Amino acid sequence: MINQAALNLIKKWEGYSGKAYQDPVGVWTIGYGTTAAAGVGITPRAHMTITEKLASGYLDAAVTKFAHNVTALLTKPANENEFGAMVSLAYNIGPGAFGKSTVLRKFNQGDKQGAADAFLLWNKAGGKVLRGLTNRRKEERALFLKPVAGSVAPVSQNWLAALIKAILSLLGAKK
């Protein structure tokens, strides 16, 4: 799960809407930015309404799902702010786009400054720069860069398996 700062950032920028609406590119959305593509059991459509409590439940389910998606893509450990900022980005652009992003590529290369700066590239919808997305990316970048003492988010099991194998190899353990 992500930290409260990241959850607050997502809630702030997604905003709560009890009535379904179409986002800037025409995708039906409800609650805290929940779309059918989130795959959490709701398909927003015209005239649909939702309570804030139910919207929060869908948000929690989607954030948990996206956190797992991000974790599976990481090859380097992330502190809770880095991780939360990346989950916020993935929540907004989708895990497929996040998986192809410069944010992820730079982070996995160990270039945290490059990853932070790459958040700013994701400020368009339908090919147009949106002020709200520009401001959101600035806040995600700031959260990503905010230091956290001793906090590390999980990395993918593939990375852990490779690390264990490398350690056993160094210790001369047999396969």
Can you offer a commentary on this structure?
54% of the residues lie in helices and 8% in strands. It has 175 residues and is mainly alpha-helical. The strands form 2 sheets. A two-stranded antiparallel ribbon has the order 1-2. It has helices at 4-14, 52-73, 80-93, 95-99, 102-108, 112-118, 131-145, 157-170; strands at 17-22, 28-31, 124-125, 128-129. The model has no long low-confidence stretch (mean pLDDT 89). The chain contains 8 helices and 4 strands. The two termini are 34 Å apart. It is globular and about 60 Å long.
The whole-number mean of residue pLDDT values reads 89
Q: Could you tell me the number of beta strands?
A: 4
H/E element order: HEEHHHHHEEHH
Overall spatial form = globular
N-end to C-end Cα span:
34 Å
Secondary structure class reads mainly alpha
Sheet with the most strands, sense and barrel status: 2 strands, antiparallel
Strand order of the largest sheet: 1-2
Q: What is the overall number of helices? A: 8
Helix fraction bin: 40-55%
If you compute it from the alpha carbons, what radius of gyration comes out, rounded to the nearest whole angstrom? Answer: 18 Å
Given as residue ranges, the uncertain stretches (5+ residues, pLDDT < 50) are: none
| Strand residue percentage | 5-15%
